[in-house]
Amino acid sequence: MGLKVGEQLKEVSRHHQVFVITHLPQIAVRADHHLLVTKTSAAERATAVVREVSADARVTELARMLGGDPESEASLQHARELLAGAAERAPARSSRGRPRASGRSRELDRRPKPSSGS
Q1: How many CB atoms within 10 Å of residue 62?
Q2: Which of 19, 77, 84, 102 has a CA positioned 20 to 30 A from the CA of residue 63?
Q3: Is residue 117 part of a domain?
């Protein structure tokens, strides 16, 4: 189920900004940017810290999300497989890191132009 939802969110993100909070690695793996939110408490004050995880840190975080030992080779391998599967299904990206609009500009060109009426 999570893989299907992740694929649908990825499709929506081709033309819209999408911000998702999830505990499901099958959804998180589809993100262009994977953010980790942690909460710390000190002197009766709670603080949330948000940081982007990438490369090895992302693999470790996905392994943790999978529910296994994030340091075990089996969990890490499963996380790598999820990332590889997501990369295989990813749409083509433009040089600026955004999905290619595949025909969107033609669609915009077909809109009726406002008349300069008198």
Answers
A1: 24
A2: 19
A3: no
Counted domains in the chain: 1
* Sign of the torsion formed by the C-alpha atoms of 6, 95, 33 and 68: positive
pLDDT tens track, the chain, 118 positions:
888 998 899 899 999 999 999 999 999 999 999 999 999 999 999 999 999 999 999 999 999 999 988 999 999 999 999 999 988 877 665 445 554 444 333 333 444 555 555 5
Q: Residue 66 is part of a domain; what is its CATH number?
A: 3.40.50.300
Residue 114 sits at φ, ψ, to 5 deg, of -65, 140
pTM: 0.71
Burial (CB < 10 A; 0-12, 13-18, 19+), residue 79, is: buried
Task: Measure the CA–CA gap between 3 and 79, rounded to whole angstroms.
Answer: 13
Task: Kindly give the interhelix angle for 2-12 and 73-89, rounded to the nearest 10 degrees.
Answer: 40
* Domain residue limits at 15: 2-109
